[in-house]
Amino acid sequence: MTMTGTPQRRSRAQPPRVVTASASGLDRDRILVFGDAVLAAEDSLHDAALRTANALGARTGRGADVTAVPWSSWTGETLLSAGVGMHLDNYDVVVVCLSGSVVHSRTTNTAVVGAARQALVLVDQLRPHLAPTAEIVVALAHKGDQTGLVTALQQARHDLVVLDTAPDATAPALFLEVTHLLLEQQRARAGSPQWLRSKPQPFEHRYDAIRRLGIVDAPADAALDRIVQQMAVLFETEGAAITLLPAGRQWSAASLWLPRGTAALQDSFCRSTVLRSGPMVVGDAWDPDRPPVVRRGPIRFYGGHPLEDLDGTRIGAVCVFDSAPRREDTVETDLLRDFAIVTRDTLYRH
Q1: Across 152-161, 164-173, 292-301, which has the greatest mean pLDDT?
Q2: Rounded-to-integer distance, Cα 267 and Cα 309, Å
Q3: pLDDT 10s digits, 1-20
């Protein structure tokens, strides 16, 4: 698939780290962007990622997570180096924005072949670290005609989607159109990244992510306390919590009704929540007709959503709970995800 465009894109001041922004909604899509040529140039990188996530969610009717990695092909840095520490197999579509050294002044046939080889080295290093059915989009962002390079890349790798993006205000809309199409086709196939994401993740990934976050056993955080208070008010529950699941225990960063701090895994509903990509609701934990999630305790109603780090690794949960049961179909699970997003952004605000 090839698109054409022309004028030069103005540069954006680059942040020092990866950013993730999310649009509301369940069953979300996850997009990873190296570089920023397909994002709105007038915004900060986080705001541009958020604008993209919201626009994609409006098209699909689902949630969306967009992770943007500051990277430029001018620097010679590999994609794996730019995304070091990230679990790249958590993404559905990965976009590599090539500009500068890869696409600059490629006019002769020899130069075009050299540029294609340079681009394919970057992509081939990335592919083994992605989900088997993840889509890779290569966006060529440079003033001038890149038809020769587009053709060379498509002939070399039939599984690549190559965009000759206009480095101006039209690039984001073009990118959204193509990404939406890829996601719908992807979801119709067996073994999609979305299906794989619904399975438990390796425990070691969670433990490593929690260690990097570095807040377990830290003092209370006023911002997290406010989040659990808001959750309890909106869901009209006695309790709410933000939990992390390091090795061998559950630790609450903030909690109402139940004590903040360490709890036994045998009492942890969140231990089950973190095994899936979507919400978990237990209307009545005392119901004798349902398999027990935890040993019997004061909690009868529980609603939780996985809490993720910036690359989608599930590290814990946000949850609400009560001593009285309630109907599961009355729980606003999309609101639980919204609180998971707010909590993630709060944890990674520094």
Answers
A1: 292-301
A2: 24
A3: 333 333 333 344 444 589 99
Q: In the chain, where are the structural domains located?
A: 19-197, 203-347
Question: Where would I find the H helices in 128-274?
Answer: 147-156, 171-187, 193-197, 203-213, 222-235, 270-273
Whether this model's pTM surpasses 0.70: yes
Yes or no: say if 66 and 93 are a contact pair by the CB < 8 Å rule. no
pLDDT of residue 102: 56
The CATH code for residues 203-347 is 3.30.450.40
* 19-197 is classed CATH 3.30.70: no
Q: Which two tokens stand for residue 152?
A: 């060379």
Residue 39: CB atoms within 10 A of its CB come to 25
Strand partners, 242: 254, 318
**Helix/strand/coil percent split, the chain, to 5:** 35, 20, 45
